[in-house]
Amino acid sequence: MVAIQLDCRHPQRHLVGVRLTVSPQRSCLRLQLPNWTPGSYLIRDYVRHLEGLEATQAGTPLTLRRLTPSSWQLVCDPDAGPVTLTYRLMATELSVRTCHMDQQHAFLALAAVVLELEGERWSPHRLEMLLPDGWEAFVPLPNDPRGGWIARDFDQLVDSPVEAGPHRSLSFEVAGVPHRWVTWGACPGGEAWLLERFPSLLTDVQQVCLRCCQLMGVERPASGSYLFVLHLLDEGYGGLEHDDSTVLVYGRQRLEQPHGYRRLLQLVAHEYLHQWNVRRLRPAQLAPIDYQQPTVVPSLWFAEGITSYVDQLLPLAAGVSDADGLLHDLGEDLSRYRLTPGRHVQSLRTSSQEAWVKLYKADAYAADSQVSYYLKGAVVALCLDLQLRRDGSCLPAVLQALWQNHGRWGRGYGEADLLQAFTAHSPALATLLPAWLEGLDDPDLDGYLFDVGLRLETEMASTPWAGITPTCQDGSLVAQRVWRDGPAEQAGLMVGDELLALDGQRVRQPAQWSAALRAGVAQSLLISRRSQLHTLTLQPLQPTVERYRLVRSETASVEQRQAQERWLTMAAPLPC
Question: Cα dist. 283→22, 156, 267, 290, 382 in Å?
Answer without folding.
Answer: 32, 18, 22, 13, 21
